Amino acid sequence: MCRTVVATTPLMEENHDQRHSSAPPSSSLTSRSVDWLRILCEAEIRLLRECYRRRLPDTLAPYLFVDNHLRWCERTRDAGGKTMFSASVFSRFYTLATQTAREELTELGTFVAITEAERCPTVAFWTLRDDLSPLKRALMDTAEIDWSKDPVFSCVHLAHYAMLQEVLRDKAPHLVFRNSTFFRLPDEVARNLQFSIPEGYELAPVDASHACEIDENWPHRYAGSEEYYRSLLRLNGGLALVAASAEQPKQLAGWILTNEYGALAHLFIKPAHRQRGLAAVLVRAWSASTVQAWAGDETAAGAEVIAYILDANIASRTLFQKLGFVEMSKSRWSNPTTN
After folding, report:
1. SS3 at position 285
2. For 168, which DSSP code?
3. pLDDT tens-digit profile of 125-177?
4. pTM
5. In terms of Cα–Cα distance, which of 240, 254, 330 is closest to 289?
6. Domains parsed from the chain with CATH numbers
7. With helix as H, strand as E and coil as C, how does 31-91 read?
8. Helix axes 158-171, 133-141, angle to 10 degrees
9. Is 302 left (phi over 0), alpha (psi -120 to 50) or beta?
């Protein structure tokens, strides 16, 4: 029996949270009186998106993460505020509390995003800064990261990894990281994708009603992962190949989703349906659908499909490269240490 627990997270208000100051911490103030991070309203997050959009395709990873968050906000409004998020998925966005806060967003693209999960909240951050010392100090001293909850870090750009290790040496030396690679699908390749559906299968959307089945089959499931999938499916949807025959009821054979970072993710084919080319069909079909959804959207101008693949997953790396994905950059991900 699958158990579902879903938490709601309100949209950010356009006014800044009064707990945060836009003034920089001074030598006479401690992090208890003025935090090193300041929460962002939705309008400011749109400035971040534009900052990274102007630098595409080099900044695809942070651009798609921010863009995905803003689209979730829009979908929540369209649904009358009734859409429910998992606390492990929806992030609050912050930037450095400095006197040059606007430049921090429009030119340097500095942000820290933190989920509100009760255990193992996820922290993701990006910046175009050459000098990482202000960000290091913020990660060390902010009250917004509760180290007692055993936070995890995702999408850590390789250029920022050494700085983060200096932070974790004091805060969480037990964290273990996995190596992964960002792959992108060049636009000219994505627009010419072709695929055929094998006999006995059909493409079908997957939604929140499939969260339990997807979670039960995922080899990396963890406490709360069904809740995570339910939110992803409700907000981003997904695509499946369904085994269809006159003798058997329709069953999911495999699926692919878009994760909270705006990347293709969670590609899975059930063992009984492997070695039939289904994974390639799903990647091509979902990539084509994503590109089509961006057509005519000015905020998506220059965007390309991306995927994060663990370096240890040789089969997936080989598949995506065969389909035309090219390596973009390296990243590090830490694993939750609390079930």
Report:
1. helix
2. H
3. 999 999 999 999 999 999 999 999 999 999 999 999 999 999 999 999 999 99
4. 0.86
5. 240
6. 37-175 (3.40.630.30), 185-329 (3.40.630.30)
7. CCCCCCEEECCHHHHHHHHHHHHCCCCCCHHHHHHHHHHHHHHHHHHHCCCCCCCCCCCCE
8. 30
9. left
